[in-house]
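Q: Here's a chain of 174 amino acids. Please give me its 3D structure as tokens.
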Amino acid sequence: MLSGVPQGSILGPLLYTIYTADIPQSDTTILSTFVDDMAIFTTHPDPTSASVSLQDHLCTIENWTRKWRMKINETKSSHITFTLRRGHSPPVYINQRVVPHAETVKYFGLHFDKRLTWKNHVTTKRKHLDLKTREINWFTGKHSPLSLENKLLIYKTVLKPVWTYGIELWGCPT
């Protein structure tokens, strides 16, 4: 290994934060990073202007990554336009490759669709809840010898976090 920090190391997140502290910012976009995940947001009534702002920021980030010998994984990148309008915004590029336009994206466990309806998120969480419920049914079902208090504790630690994660965002509009 010539460079980098072992995955899962204690100092990894701190060293990465220090290493990327000078990542380029822009007045027309918002950069959101967490460890090695990044999202760039921009708003404008005109989708073309929004794409231009996004592309300008992507170009400065490309130059920064070349300078610091970092690689952007284009296969994990996607571009979504949140709008009620029909059609797509102009494409954006990373390292001369078109960033695929997506109808939905997953970011930190939240599923966003282009109209922000949360339908995909709620459906996905419902499937996850059904799976978890089946997995623990033998443990919490009516024939289980566990007390009601222990069953409630299992519910609060296994099931409740699945449906409450991000509820501040998706729970209001649904």
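Q: Can you summarize the key feature?
A: The mean pLDDT is 88.
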